[in-house]
Design brief:
404 residues, alpha/beta, Rossmann fold, 2 domains, 8-stranded mixed sheet, 5-stranded parallel sheet, binds cytidine-5'-triphosphate
């Protein structure tokens, strides 16, 4: 669906059982305010959290909850409802709902509609972090993505169950924004992109690790912008509490080795952006038990980590590779050498130290590529993300002209 007609879309909002069900009220409200027509379908479990009457009042239409309701079926039957929808958005999508969809079940109205519709289906998963991380849920998630279902979130942060981690439903305002701006319609539509972000953690013992000051902001801003421009994005992120940008598939990792493995498992990519501050070294033998102090000095043996971006740059077929360089001196010279050494197509160099670059909301960058350079003066990282991608598209365009 194109972004331009998004304000009068016919949207079917599915609500499954979870504490985040109350947030779907805000989503429905936003979509209606933007001019969309919304019908709500709830699972049986969802009605335990919010009453259908609430959604009826907000959407202005009766809410459907069951498949075999003769009265409702005599109005708009479930096949007609499936055809009516131009988009299906399920928020929250519980672990159970995802499992049923992945299995292709049609044991209630909502899952039946998902099978019967030709409209794109989007899920905003919401569940406890352990349930989200469980291999069964991850397998269902991967299977749904393969079938073309788009994911909105989940976010990381504090959860209703009192824990902190990935599994929170993306905020309803952010879901509404994603639906209204319309992914897949931008100047990067059709591209597969992979972005790394944040710092890695290299364990010393079960409670300690080597880390760095990276906040992940630059990588998250890039992932958000690439998705907004229509590409399919996988964000491989080191530990971070930043919200998952709309439409982005997020893979959380901790160590450089896990980041490397996550990237190796992605078969094809057109664009790779290495914004992560990957640890160059890992502890040779992390202790199995907590290290005890004994007054003597302590040495850690460090082994070099694989260079992820250099490995990606040697792939065949090779994506366009954008990397970063954080330097404390001789910025242009060091960055140019780093670009060459790692086989990057473009490098975004910044000066660090003395409060610059790391863990700040803004930065200044020097972009270097084979035939040019561009200075990006100090700006918010979200704005820099836009400029980096504009430059990337320009380079691609110039090279396709040159090869004609
Ligand atoms: N990078 C990577 N894998 C590593 C280390 C770095 O993919 N093991 C990527 C980063 O994501 C970044 C770029 O390489 O895009 C530059 O990283 P940086 O740490 O500045 O470069 P180093 O090669 O570590 O050079 P230095 O000697 O300055 O530490």
């Amino acid at each position: 669906m194109s972004g331009s007609s998004s304000n009068n879309q016919r949207i079917l909002v599915g609500v499954s059982g979870g504490i985040a069900a109350y947030k779907a009220i805000v989503l429905v409200r936003r979509m209606i305010d933007a001019g969309c027509e919304v019908r709500v379908v709830m699972t049986e479990a969802a009605t335990r959290f919010v009453t259908p009457l609430t959604f009826q009042a907000v959407s202005g239409h009766p809410v459907r909850t069951t498949l075999l309701d003769a009265e409702a079926e005599s109005g708009m039957d479930h096949i007609a409802l499936a055809r009516w929808a131009q988009r299906v958005v399920i928020a929250p999508a519980s672990a159970d709902l995802m499992a049923r969809l992945a299995a292709g079940m049609a044991d209630d109205l909502l899952t039946t509609l998902c099978l019967a519709t030709e409209a794109p289906v989007q899920l905003a998963p919401a569940m406890n972090r352990q349930m989200w991380a469980h291999p069964a849920t991850q397998a269902n998630y991967a299977r749904l993505l393969e079938r073309g279902v788009t994911m909105l979130g989940p976010d990381a942060g504090s959860q209703a169950c009192g824990e902190t981690g990935t599994g929170r439903m993306m905020e309803p305002e952010a879901i509404a924004d994603a639906l209204l701006t319309g992914e897949g319609a931008g100047d990067m539509a059709g591209l597969e992109a992979v972005v790394t972000a944040g710092g890695t953690r290299e364990p010393i013992d079960p409670v300690r690790f080597l880390a760095n000051r990276s906040s992940g902001r630059m990588g998250f801003a890039l992932a958000a912008e690439v998705a907004r421009r229509g590409a399919r994005v996988t964000l491989v992120a080191g530990p971070s509490t930043l919200a998952t940008p709309a439409g982005v598939r997020r893979v959380d990792v901790e160590t450089a080795a896990q980041m490397q493995a996550a990237i190796e498992s992605i078969e094809s990519m057109d664009l790779f952006i290495g914004a992560a501050a990957v640890a160059d070294y890992r502890v040779a033998r992390p202790a199995e038990q907590k290290l005890k102090k004994n007054g003597a000095s302590l040495s850690l043996e460090l082994l070099p980590n694989p260079d992820i971006i250099a490995t990606v740059a040697q792939r065949g077929p090779r994506p366009f590779v954008i990397g970063f360089a954080a330097e404390t001196e001789r910025l242009a010279e060091h960055a140019a050498a780093k670009r060459q050494a790692k086989g990057m197509d473009m490098i975004c160099a910044n000066e660090v130290g003395a409060g610059r670059g790391f863990d700040t909301p803004d930065n200044a960058l020097l972009l270097l590529w084979q035939d040019g350079e561009r200075v990006l003066p100090r700006a918010a990282k979200t704005q820099l993300a836009t400029q980096i991608l504009d430059t990337y598209l320009q380079i691609k365009q110039d090279s396709s002209h040159a090869s004609r």
